[in-house]
């Protein structure tokens, strides 16, 4: 992997100029001025929200079911947008207004067939300007943000690395992230999410990764694609643009491992154990000879001659680490480099985040896992919480799981029944889906839970949830908050009183 990076200079202001935009975007037309007069004008950053436009920006007005970004073109131009994409039909309808903005602000307008696809084509053209950048893609039903952070941490030990910030992994988020690539970067790690069919193929076409990893095939978005097999087919598209020099990484224990590995070009590496209850292949081919679980404080991983302390708890995070380690091992990173990278990773906000709240009078431990939820991640969270040793009681606060489509009814019932068998002392169900699931739980299961003194609460509002939790919780209790992002279960934390702080990072030592 070369130290020198070709492509736009790190200090260059212009990411793409007008001539390059016309080359990149199929069917684009520069309006109101000849190319000879504007060929070297361009943009220095990109925005899809007019409120984020600053001088020199490319503004891409997106068209959705509820909003049309074309309404904000004048606002973007006045804010300093140097380049704006406009769909051709809107360009014809608003030609006089656009021409006036060009004369007033000097904004270059490009008429395109479809603003989103034009944005993606421009981003793909830009990414291609960096042929020596090692591009790594990550997708999967869950864990992709965590694996992306792990890989970025490892690769940054050796050289400057660019990645998606936050969760910018969508049809618009990935292009925005790609425009952060600069000549100084040696590595780029980008996650790819999906909300519709064929989206992963589009995103892979933008990045063209040479290394790509799939974390797992679960039930996230099953309501959109219909089945786990369809999800697997979609996630597999991260390998769609592979050539003979590319390598993909597939979890060995996944039900669809064989399907994912069946690609026309490139190489597939299986990582982890073929047994679902093991993270590491027992034969030691991965270089990992031993793991030790420290509960809320994470894991020790014995890799080659190094003890790596992973501060992320939960068996699923151990699996994530094994995947990241497999990519880094293949890329030639030393055990010391992998150790330095993985040990720098801490919990991401809302993803198995361990908090202490309540102050000295009623200290509580909270597992804050409310960034997202689907049947697989709900099962993982319940298994993790149930396996922990605590000085107090186990309290489960479960919010509805959204976007499950036809499987939602059964998935929520299954989650509630699993919670009843988890050994918890109390179960707080929040959201219509969870309440309806409780009504469908068989009478025998409810009676058996009641015989174990399991308390079940069905609060209608966050305020009631807070009141009921405050009345129930005692010193030393462990609380799991798990639900979809839209449920925003973290809203209950301030209602429980006291400040919150992270568990010390060296708690495993």
TrEMBL record:
Its main location: cytoplasm. Keywords: ATP-binding, Cell cycle, Cell division, Cell shape, Cell wall biogenesis/degradation, Cytoplasm, Ligase, Nucleotide-binding, Peptidoglycan synthesis. SUPFAM superfamilies: MurD-like peptide ligases, catalytic domain, MurD-like peptide ligases, peptide-binding domain, MurE/MurF N-terminal domain. Pfam families: Mur_ligase, Mur_ligase_C, Mur_ligase_M. Its EC number is 6.3.2.10. InterPro entries: Mur-like_cat_sf (IPR036565), Mur_ligase_C (IPR004101), Mur_ligase_C_dom_sf (IPR036615), Mur_ligase_cen (IPR013221), Mur_ligase_N (IPR000713), MurCDEF_CellWall_CoF430Synth (IPR051046), MurE/MurF_N (IPR035911), UDP-N-AcMur_synth (IPR005863). It is an enzyme of class 6 (ligase). Residues 138-328 form the Mur ligase central domain. GO terms for cellular component: cytoplasm. Residues 350-485 form the Mur ligase C-terminal domain. One of its GO terms (biological process) is peptidoglycan biosynthetic process. It is found in: Cytoplasm. ATP binds at residues 140-146. It catalyses: D-alanyl-D-alanine + UDP-N-acetyl-alpha-D-muramoyl-L-alanyl-gamma-D-glutamyl-meso-2,6-diaminopimelate + ATP = UDP-N-acetyl-alpha-D-muramoyl-L-alanyl-gamma-D-glutamyl-meso-2,6-diaminopimeloyl-D-alanyl-D-alanine + ADP + phosphate + H(+). Residues 48-90 form the Mur ligase N-terminal catalytic domain. PANTHER family: UDP-N-ACETYLMURAMOYL-TRIPEPTIDE--D-ALANYL-D-ALANINE LIGASE. Belongs to the MurCDEF family. MurF subfamily. Involved in cell wall formation. Catalyzes the final step in the synthesis of UDP-N-acetylmuramoyl-pentapeptide, the precursor of murein. This is UDP-N-acetylmuramoyl-tripeptide--D-alanyl-D-alanine ligase. The lineage of its organism: Bacteria, Pseudomonadati, Spirochaetota, Spirochaetia, Spirochaetales. The gene is murF.
